[in-house]
Structure prediction request, 162 residues.
Amino acid sequence: MGKHVITLMVNGESHRLEIEPRAHLADVLRDELALTGTHIGCEHGVCGACTIRVDGAITRACLLLAVQAEGAVIETIEGLSDSGEIGDLQDAFRHRNALQCGYCTPAMLITAQDLLLHNPNPDRATIRDHISGNYCRCTGYQAIVDAVETVAKARQTAGERA
Prediction:
């Protein structure tokens, strides 16, 4: 089987790539586009380290073939960070010590942002439930929940002032 040429829209930029048809999107993002914030952990979609957004929905990049992403809008941690969309979450994670080794952090930030976009005022149980598909072996999750809760409250307050 030969290589396929695909065009991917990643973080607002179009990329034309020649790839193996069996290449997973996580590998293409990391190896072809040098977007190494998309981590590969279990390669079974269980750990959540490869979480990205595809057409606005959080997706496990290790479970999606790159050829399946043709025509989709793909956003990685690099794009969300560069755009400033998650700046407040990044600050809260840093201030609340919600990151240790950093391996889960990119996917955790994307997952937290997804929650806050769909539920701007989650309680702690809802936050825990939403991030439960992302493994973190260092923090014990408490600081992550604290950070997400802090941002939710700050965004609520900012929205009330506007």
Q: What stands out?
A: The first strand starts at residue 4 and ends at 10. The two ends are 56 Å apart (CA to CA).
